[in-house]
TrEMBL record:
Pfam families: Hydrolase_6, Hydrolase_like. InterPro entries: HAD-like_sf, HAD-SF_hydro_IIA, HAD_sf. PANTHER family: 4-NITROPHENYLPHOSPHATASE-RELATED, D-GLYCEROL 3-PHOSPHATE PHOSPHATASE. It comes from the Bacteria. Transmembrane segments: none annotated. This is Acid sugar phosphatase. It comes from Phytohabitans aurantiacus.
Length: 327
């Protein structure tokens, strides 16, 4: 039911994904700095939950601050930190862990009281695998030997891709897939989204009872929110686009959709998906006609497509909307 208030006013915590939502690699996404500033002015608690295991929480907070988004390390939850915590719970202090990933993951393992190593010959009892731009065949080979020898295999996340200015590039999930193929089995533990723990931890830390997850990926952010029992906002500034949204199974459908973070300040029913009603657009059988906001057309298409219809444009404005949405 619509509250008639801004979307954000219905929640006591906003949990942001980072890449594709707040920034793209090292640049803020247009409107993100202003949106976060508006949330700060309104006193809305914020958290940042990222599957990226190549930076530590403090480094992420410093990056955000440098981009004009003031943040503290305790507001940032990374899959690297979460993976190290899982290992610390399962292993004994000082146990050796073969680290496949960036230096940030190695540092998290060390801070958790464990001993990071680089080779299977050093007798690791576990392998932790996270994204790192320098990860290569030799690293995967050492991990393969260690896991075959009985080491616990923990993946920070299984994101198939990560966003970049040149489009999606291979993510940690692609590297996990290479090792999965070689080993013929799945990791023992996957820590990051779509597993719900990052979101649940963020809510616990501030005592939030009604958090909102904001992400750009249906297969991690939105599915993770669904698994955690939280509402979610999909922003179309990163990986998942309109076609992905229309094809999404129920487990990956957001509560709201917006072009960018400005959607946080829209009236809740103006970004809810599927919509109760929209102005200007009409569905007549399998045809979309009329005219209006492109995002309203997308929300109406979700209602029809998720109900099993295959919709085609039947007005010039509808054809333009399909083209804009890449449909």
């Amino acid at each position: 039911m619509s509250t008639g208030k801004r979307l954000v006013d219905g929640y006591d915590l906003v949990i942001f994904d980072l890449d594709g939502v707040v920034y793209l690699i090292d640049r803020p996404i247009p409107g993100a700095v202003e949106a976060v500033a508006e949330l700060h002015r309104g006193g809305t608690p914020l958290a940042y939950a990222t599957n990226n295991a190549s930076r530590r929480s403090g480094e992420v907070a410093d990056l955000l601050t440098a981009l004009g988004v003031p943040a503290t390390a305790d507001e940032v939850l990374t899959s690297a930190g979460a993976a190290a915590a899982v290992l610390a719970q399962r292993l004994s202090p000082g146990d050796r862990v073969l680290v496949v990933g960036a230096e940030a993951l190695r540092a998290e393992v060390r801070e958790a009281g464990l001993t990071p190593v680089s080779a299977a010959g050093e007798a690791p009892v576990a392998v932790v695998q996270g994204y790192g731009p320098e990860v290569g065949w030799a690293d995967l080979a050492e991990a393969c030997v260690a896991v075959r020898g009985g080491a616990l295999w923990v993946a920070t996340n299984t994101d198939r891709t990560l966003p970049s200015p040149r489009g999606p590039l291979p993510g940690n999930g692609s590297l996990v897939a290479a090792l999965r193929t070689a080993l013929g089995r799945e990791p023992d533990v996957v820590v990051g989204k779509p597993e719900p723990e990052l979101f649940a931890t963020a809510a616990r830390l501030v005592g939030a009872r009604r958090p909102l997850v904001v992400g750009d990926r249906l297969d991690t952010d939105i599915e993770g929110a669904v698994r955690a029992g939280m509402d979610s906002l999909l922003v179309l500034t990163g990986v998942s686009g309109a076609a992905d949204l229309l094809a999404a199974p129920e487990s990956r459908r957001p509560t709201f959709v917006a072009a960018d973070l400005s959607g946080l300040f829209e009236v809740d029913e103006a970004v809810r998906v599927p919509p109760v009603a929209v102005d200007g657009w009409q569905l007549d059988g399998d045809g979309l006609s009329g005219s209006g906001a492109v995002l309203d057309a997308l929300r109406l298409l979700c209602a029809a497509t998720w109900a099993g219809a295959k919709v085609r444009p039947t007005s010039s404005a509808a054809r333009d909307a399909f083209h804009t949405l890449g449909l």
